[in-house]
UniProtKB/TrEMBL annotation:
Its main location: membrane. Keywords: Hydrogen ion transport, Ion transport, Membrane, Transport, Vacuole. PANTHER family: V-TYPE PROTON ATPASE SUBUNIT F, VACUOLAR ATP SYNTHASE SUBUNIT F. NCBIfam families: V_ATP_synt_F (TIGR01101). This is V-type proton ATPase subunit F. It comes from the Eukaryota. GO terms for molecular function: proton-transporting ATPase activity, rotational mechanism.
Length: 120
């Protein structure tokens, strides 16, 4: 278990420019020796395929513990987000400046509600 925790030491981020910039300023940015980063800035010109490929890549990397994704971006790839059922990396949906958080859409909260039988 300790070895697993040492391997998974990064946060990854898929989000709008403001969110990514803020978290990069907070120090989460990383580029490995193969020039692979742990973040993707999504704007109106970002192809859906790029978002999907990045999400799949981040959820399969062994050095990432948590994938943060703006909820409005997660909505674009909702099927992939909902299908991700592994503990590591955890996928957490976060709000953005221009898009409020909606708990009814959050994949983690939906999973908890299914487990507890609370469908309010």
């Amino acid at each position: 278990m300790a070895n697993l925790l040492r391997e998974r030491s990064l946060l990854a981020l898929i989000g709008d420019e403001d969110t990514v910039t803020g978290l990069l300023l907070a120090g989460i940015g990383h580029i490995d020796t193969k020039q692979k980063s742990n973040f993707l800035i999504v704007d109106s010109k970002t192809p859906l395929a790029t978002i999907e490929e990045t999400f799949i890549e981040f959820t399969h990397r062994k050095d990432i513990a948590i994938v943060l994704i703006n909820q409005h971006v997660a909505d674009m790839i909702r099927q992939l987000v909902d299908e991700h059922d592994q503990a590591f990396p955890s996928v957490l949906e976060i709000p953005s400046k221009d898009h409020p958080y909606d708990p009814a859409k959050d994949s983690v909260l939906k999973r908890v509600q299914r487990l507890t039988g609370d469908y309010n």
